[in-house]
């Protein structure tokens, strides 16, 4: 969580040419929102794209990889326990985002229900 209390999304690109970080962030956020919509989580889509559900950042290291061979020979020498840790970290992050999306969807449904019933939120 960030200091604002919102979940943070961190997008990290793979190998490729130089990137426009803001354009990439927006594109990736829209792709994530499209996936959420297709998975039946349409309530979270505007929260993702408008930024009130999470803070999204795109890490841009593309200038570090523009020279040939700066990433080494291409062999994966990451120890298995580190791979397992990273996989668990990503799973936990995805689970937390899903829980926050569900909480926000519940709050939105509650507000809509309250407005439809004509009650004041404090009733």
Labels describing this entry:
123 residues, mainly alpha, two-stranded parallel sheet
Short description:
The chain is mostly helical and about 120 residues long. It has helices spanning about 20-40, 45-50, 80-115, and strands at about 5-10, 55-60. The protein has a two-stranded parallel ribbon.
Overall description:
The chain is mainly α and 123 residues long. The protein is built from three helices and two strands; from the N terminus they run βααβα. A two-stranded parallel sheet has the order 1-2. The radius of gyration is 19 Å and the shape is elongated. The chain starts with 6 loop residues before the first strand and ends in a 6-residue tail after the last helix. The model has no long low-confidence stretch (mean pLDDT 80).
Please write out the topology.
Layout: E1 7-12, H1 21-38, H2 45-50, E2 54-59, H3 80-117
Parallel strand pairs: 1-2
User: What is the end-to-end distance?
Assistant: 31 Å
Order of helices and strands: EHHEH
**Uncertain parts:** none
- The strand line-up of the biggest sheet is 1-2
- Report the major sheet: 2 strands, parallel
Instruction: Return the structural class.
Output: mainly alpha
Number of strands: 2
Q: Please, what is the oligomeric state?
A: single chain
Shape: elongated
| Integer average pLDDT | 80
What percent of the residues sit in helical stretches (DSSP H or I)?
40-55%
Evaluate the radius of gyration.
19 Å
Q: Kindly estimate the percentage of residues that lie in beta strands according to DSSP.
A: 5-15%
H/I helix tally: 3
């Amino acid at each position: 969580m960030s200091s604002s209390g919102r979940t943070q999304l961190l997008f990290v690109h793979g190998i490729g040419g130089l990137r426009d970080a803001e354009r990439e962030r927006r594109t990736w956020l829209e792709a994530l929102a499209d996936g959420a919509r297709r998975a039946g989580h349409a309530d979270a889509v505007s929260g993702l794209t408008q930024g009130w559900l999470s803070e999204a950042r795109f890490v841009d290291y593309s200038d570090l990889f523009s020279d040939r061979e700066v990433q080494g020979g291409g062999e994966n020498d990451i120890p298995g326990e580190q791979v397992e840790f990273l996989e668990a970290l990503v799973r936990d992050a995805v689970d937390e985002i899903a829980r926050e999306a569900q909480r926000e969807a519940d709050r939105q449904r509650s507000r809509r229900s309250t407005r439809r019933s004509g009650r004041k939120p404090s009733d």
